[in-house]
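Key idea: predict the complex, not the pieces.
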Amino acid sequence: MADHSPSTGQVEFQFNGKTIVAAPGQTIAGALHAAGEHVLSSSFKYHRPRGLLCVSGRCPNCLCTVDGTPNERICQTPARTGMQVKSQNAWPSPKLDVLRVFNRFSRFMPVGFYYKSMYKPRWMWPIWEKLIRRITGLGTIDPVHGGDGDYEKRNIFTDVAIIGGGLAGMQAALAAAEGGARVVLIDDQPGLGGHLRYDPDLVRAEWTELPLRTAANHRIEVINGATVFGAYEDRYLGVRQGERLLRIRAAQVVVATGAWERPYVFENNDLPGVLLASGAQRLVRLEHCTFDGPVLVVTDNAQGYRAARQLKGAGVTLAGLVDTRADSTEAIDGVTIHRGQTITAATGSSHVTGAKLATLAGEKKGTIGCRWIVQALGFTAATSLLYQAGCSLEYDPALDQPVVKKYAAGYWSTGAVNGFHDPQAASAEARSVGAAAAAAVGSQPVPRVVERPTSSGATAVEPNYVAPTSAKKQFVCLCEDVTVKDVGDAIDEGYSNIETLKRYSTVSMGPCQGKMCQAAAIAVCARHNKQTIAQTGVTTARPPDQPVPLGVLAGRGVQFTLVRQTAMHDWHVRNGATMSDAGNWKRPGVYTTVEQEYDAVRNRAGLIDVSTLGKLDLRGEDVSKLLEYIYPNKFANLPVGRVRYGVICGEDGIILDDGTVSRLGSERYFITTTTGNADAIDSWFRSTLVCRPQWDIRFTNVSTSFAAMNLAGPCSREILAKLTTSDVSAERWPYLAAGELTIAGVKATVLRIGFVGELGYEIHVPTQYGLHVWEAILEAGREFGIAPFGLEAQRLLRLEKKHFLPGVDTDALSNPLEADIGWVVKLEKPDFIGRHSLDRVSQRPLRQKLVGFRLQDSTPIEAGSLVLSGTKVTGRVTSSGNSPAVGTTIGLAWVAADQAHDGARFEIRVRDSNVPAFVHEAPFYDPAGERLKS
Amino acid sequence: MPSPMWRQHELKESYDVVVIGGGVHGLATAYYLTKLGVRNIAVLEAKYLGFGGSGRNTAIVRSNYRTPEGIAFYDHSVKLYEQLAAELEFNVMFSQHGHFTLAHNERGVTGLIERANNNRMVGVNSRVIYPAEIQKLVPHLNVFGHSRFPIMAALYHPPGGIIRHDAVVWAYARGADRGGAHIHQQTEVTAIDVHQGKVTSVRTNRGTIRAGAVVNATAGYASTISKMAGVPLPIESHPLQACVTEPLKPFLDAVIVSSTLHVYVSQTDRGELVLGAEVDDHQSYSIKGSLAFLEGAATHLLELFPFLANVKVLRQWAGLCDMTPDYSPIIGEAPDVKGFLMTVGWGTYGFKAGPASGHLLAERIASGKTPKLLEPFGLERFANDCLVGEKAAASVSH
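Result:
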């Protein structure tokens, strides 16, 4: 079942500047092993040399920087010609790391030492911290070239998702498919088979065709090389496949993630040359490697013997086999078996040179020379996705692993993750689970009895995590260099809860996220606290189960954040407009100069693109009822053919947005919102409607269906008249009229409103005719001296009219009464959103007020400047500008209520001096509104 | 054998002050009470110390708020944090490399100017800086490169930074323990007894305790605990999510926040990047992370630092935030229940305020008088409609 075999054509890559030759199909780690490069990295804290351990992408030891990408698991990365592979956290090289000196001073760096040092005197800490920040971290990121990728996302919906393509996963998939379900089978290796791929003695004849049969089944989609990293709410799976993010929503999920071998904790257990048995098997079987010296196998189970036979069969010299069980009888020809013993230490400095043995009671049994130590001392079930999904698990001492007590809805598990290590038993269980999962598709989840094996068949009866002798460098956590002694010390200091222990000692907080160390950490913690493993509990399993690159999560979002353009966008750009962002929209800021555009609007005519406004179409018998409820002012009495200003408040009476409401028919309304709040108001209406299903209302968001423009200025009526056959006289189309007109051959919804304070028409036409109507108006207006105007001129024009902008001139505490538009609040209405709060506000004196102000001169005032009363801050400036109509700086500001009467003087802080300002109650321009209503 | 940080005690029948919640607020309150001579104190923690927000926040400390009341309060906290390691003899690793709030549009810039002006009035060091200076101070930030929403300005707050949050919890716990307070973990409050408008006792899974005063210093469930004393709170609880990457050699010393892009990021002394966003928009008591959060946070972070695309996320988590209407906390005695005090409603900004709230609330309890800095934050402000509006300075920026 090996996936790749040596073929012609070699691959060459660089490792720390040295050329390495790899066989095709080999991973970087396999090639390095074959080339005799066994020291791959330096450890996080003590800079100890580290080499291959798990060879399955779980442990932290092989993390290298590959082509500039830090922290790559090179045992999972196929070698490619030209690759640059570099060791991390090691200078100048992992063999000669100068910071390895930390290893010799480790007694000065006990667990949590940094909490107890470096803070006295206070000024020393920044200096220490600078030093720490120079040596901390693992990989180095390239801030110039890092981070390109061809990212994409894919969504998958399926009946049954099966996680893990080992024997159990394949059998479950086939059984589910036979049951009629559509199945997605996800596996993180390049080929199906799990342990069968590298442990040939496990394979029975009838299973050899399983990968092919699974892949060929038309109901099963096999996704190889993909890691399920998250089991989110409602069977929503996050999966990384290379540079692709898969989002899978499944009716049923079968977790067949198996188990990985766990490292034994003994002195120098982190030395290069100490391997997991499955890692050694992978190197031999999948990477076609051998071992350059004698191998000592340490085991308490059948897998150790299988591994030993496999290595022997591949021509590897065995230094012996240590079996912790005194009563085992298994034998291998020509290999010395040391029964009833275990390993207590590895000897050697940068690579294993031998192993110290002892009985389980700790009686020393001497040293055996060897170059490799291969350990087969039990498994850790890959349960983290079950925990993530919300299943509850309990520790089963007989199986020495957590098993599911209660499944989350729609979840199943099978195989070694359930403790079935005997392939025959796992296979049978998986078929019944697969069939049951398929049968459960589309039905209500029912509580299930959880079947579990009586013994795992994988480990010794007595769980054995730690060597029976005590020594300094017995590493529980390889990522963080946490030793058995560290764990004990931390508990003695009071960090006895497993979660607190984790945070203080940092055990299981490194790149492997506890895969290698959590079981041992719990066992050591339990022993030290004199508790059972079950009482000790586990730390919370959090996604991602395997690290996921930010680029994969972001997808093409990196390059493709939505840009919204109006129908007239290209025209604006062609005609020299500066474009600015308004949410995701692009809007014209200014075409020529603010002065010229202002002049056109005030004296002739101007045209502005307002397509970005939110637009809602509401029809039905009950719309007026809805509007009465949503708006503080009245709408039921709005006549057909009229438009009215409206403010929407939250339940707290705070202004959310403003806009217009037009009644185009007795049961037909057209609503506009501001650009920035278009989505929020859409949701506001929808959530209000959801609670009133009995009301007759058809609600349609037509924001992007219509282009919109505002024709404003004294000449605008004459310009409009040129483009329509209808009567647009002041009598037929007075101020606040609303209705339909055909303009330049296009049916338009027209509102006679004037945000900028002039005679004006807001014209909405279907988006595809937007540019046509825009150009037609400009053409018709040419003889009058029309000019397009942008946001900047509009800001100034509206400021002269004292029209505020929600979110600019108001904030999360602004209510209509204090924003000086109390007239929109009709407290006599029995109910509307915010009524209760506004009623309370109306019964107290106002505290602050939004007022217009003018200076004595044209001193520029930044929005955001503070309003003072003496030295006390009483408010702030929200908008300001130099008004051509007034001849000085004007603006809007929040001031204390006692500063808010007409003509009152207040101070504005400008840099470190105060500038006097005077409240101006009326609009600065055309206070009677004659031009607007003309 | 190392000496324990805090001791275990039998639950006594009576304490002068019972503090509910073994996080930074509860432990700081207990610690400062012992300093004021109030020593008969119990701190009750349902799980383990720092289980809640204190262990889940992203450890940002700053005082560049928006209102004069808020700025002065958080400034007090920053100053206490600066002395904390020396005072508690525990290195809490306060890393003050500056805090940058970015603005990508005009409205954002105005908000920063207003904050800078207010900070200046209170004497807090912060100022608005523009792209060239931003680039100089944060060399690897994407200021001038291609960007959908280019950076227009930043509020630069030099005293801001990050701290080792768990260490703060443990240091206060040790300080409180040494001062005589009893810390009771795995002790869950099930009821609070109130008699004639005064709190009398607290019932727990380990028995009933008579109490002179009860302090609600919980987060996530603050409204549930207050309800036990008959004190309804204007609080909505929302999940807040964060994630952390694998350790990298440090390239980013400052805290970077962007409300427009809904993301903030810092790099710890371990080399991990910590990133987060604003609270989830729905109310929930779930503390599970979502994939949508990871996707969003990654997308937005890469706009600021495009070269991080190959950097891997190691784990994500969520905490609960008790949001008040004005994004400011509720501290003080309940108006209608004597002896029931609160330091709650800490939203997304509780951790940075722990020392100040503990310090001032202890003073309030010991003296019976409300310190000036606490005056604006009483529960009665909602009835009186005197809110302290910090939303603009606290929604993404925690």
